[in-house]
What does this fold into?
Amino acid sequence: MKNRNFKEGVPQHVYVRGAEGVIIFYSLEDSIFYVTLYFCLSKKHEIVTYAFSLMPNHAHSQQKARSPKSFAAFNRELLSRFVQTYNRQHGRHGPLFDKPFGSASKPTGKLIKSNISYICNNAAEGKLSKGILDYRWNLIAYCKDSNPFSEQRSTRLSPRRFQRAVKMVKYCRSTLVPLDYKLQETVYKGLNKSEKKRIIDLILSEYNVVDKEGMVVYFGSLDNALTAMETNCGSEHDIKEDWDDYSVYRLMIQYIRREGVDMRTVDFERMDKKGLIELRKRLKKATGASDRQLDKFLHMKLKKPAADK
It folds into this structure.
């Protein structure tokens, strides 16, 4: 906690970024695991979260901790456990995030509200959504509705495979078990597309890390909060963040999937150099991505760690 301006009970804007800005969250499974792990560890370390946003290569959150020790322990365990599991899943090794993570204290109501707006608008500013409620990974839609991106149907009248998935998600949530890659595979097994959408909504509703009641204290109500966020995207002067057009990464993921690459296990760092250069050329032609965006997506500028002994 050296060099961090931490005061007990004061919210902190926390910013974690992929090493050298590389893309991390390629698949639904990557994002679900991060969110559910965050939720479970926040309960363990007594972290209250007023705002959250998961972007392709970074994550924002506004956290309030009871002590510097719990604040540090939570963020350290979150990143450590995520990286270990992610690396096993993607067949890679070495660092994944920049170190140390960034944080900035928000000691006044005005700063807190502005920072909440900034975090929740991150996707819209990065061209991933039209508005706050259109983006799944800031979790705000789940503060209003348990099924914001799927049709609402009776669980009791649904097929047994769906009922089984619901029971598994709720059991894991009640026992504070994050949904890692293997658990997600089990949950989704046998579901059709419509059922999977409903289960994804259930997961993010059950594991919603945003403390709705805590957040609206500063705005009066959720509707007031949304109105404030829509009219003022907020600002952040304490943590440097490079702007990017993140919609390009979505286009690249779609292109890669059409080529038959499984984004749940992809590891560009192990791809042979000739194949990687050829893929880079095709991606550039298909999406118009800049050289910088291609480097980040393909991990081409990431410093390779020393070989494991």
Q: What stands out?
A: Residues 160-206 form one domain. The beta strands are 12-17, 48-54, 58-64, 102-105. The mean pLDDT is 93. The chain has 13 helices and four strands.
